[in-house]
Amino acid sequence: MNRPRRAFLGALAAVLITAVPGCGLLSGEEPVTPGKEQAKIRLGVLPIVDAAAVHIAIKKGYFRDEGVEVELKTIQGGAAGIPGLVNGELDVTFGNWVSFLNAQAKQTADLKLVADGYRGKPDMFLVVVTPDSPVKTPADLAGRKIAVNTRANVVELAVRAGLKAKNVDANSVQFIEMPFPDMQAALQRKDVDAALLVEPFLTRAMQQIGAVPVLDTITGEAADLPIGGYATTAKFVKERPKTIDAFRRALVKAQQDASDPAEVQSVVTGYAKIDPAIAQVLRLGLYPTTIDVQRLKGVVALMKANGMLTEDIDPAKMLL
Asked: Which keywords describe this protein according to UniProt (predicted)?
């Protein structure tokens, strides 16, 4: 074969290879092409360990490798991210399953569940008080003020379920809404009698002010409670299916990494601004890599049992 012909065939082969979508990619998937879709996601997050996988994915370049640019926007609670989705300020948000299910049931938003984020286990979702508090047992919480980050969310559900398991009337409790970072000071000022704290604020309060746990909420009917995950709108999925799939692939990869506590510790000192010594002893939950529909149906049942949901809702219909 003469040299010009070999050169022509080599060039033709190169063209054919690049023309085949995904050909040669080790992942077997084609990265999002900005020319086809706007490959940027405005993501609502909280400075808590639940969302550690997002920061792991950023640190390790998982989103970048998938061709997605992620812009983080801090929200106060999972419920607070839903209006941002509806009005277009956010494309995806981390949030608690209770708020997502409530919004879908009440038709205030048409949500699609993107990925699981965090699942509870004992000794990490605790109601705490100050060392000098007269509250010593779960029974002493009756009639008290308990801080939660937002109302009608998974935090309130966990407290209600935990109180019910201890034969305490949850309706006697006054829930006070405030951001997690403000709860430690509120306890010290006696603005509230107790607070449901999550990490990293839980360990910080225990070390800095000697906060004492009086109720472990991840027990009884709330055992292995799904805490939160990531959701978007049906509209966003329809408009940018490649972008949301690429985002999910990167996030799930980071969720798998987060099963190693050292990976969580490596990022939480930055985005949550906590001391490395505290990061080493955080009480961590689980970081699932798939959405467990049966567990979410259990959340629906628990919401109904505790008077936080009256409508019917099937989580399976919310999956991508």
From this structure: Signal
- For residue 23, is pLDDT > 50? no
β-partners of residue 177 are: 148
- List Cα–Cα distances, 311 to 22, 24, 32, 101, 108, in angstroms: 44, 49, 38, 10, 13
Query: Is 228 a residue whose pLDDT tops 70?
Result: yes
| pLDDT for res 37 | 83
pTM of the model: 0.86
Fold of the domain spanning 126-222: D-Maltodextrin-Binding Protein; domain 2 (3.40.190)
- Looking at domain 29-119+225-318, its CATH architecture is 3-Layer(aba) Sandwich (3.40)
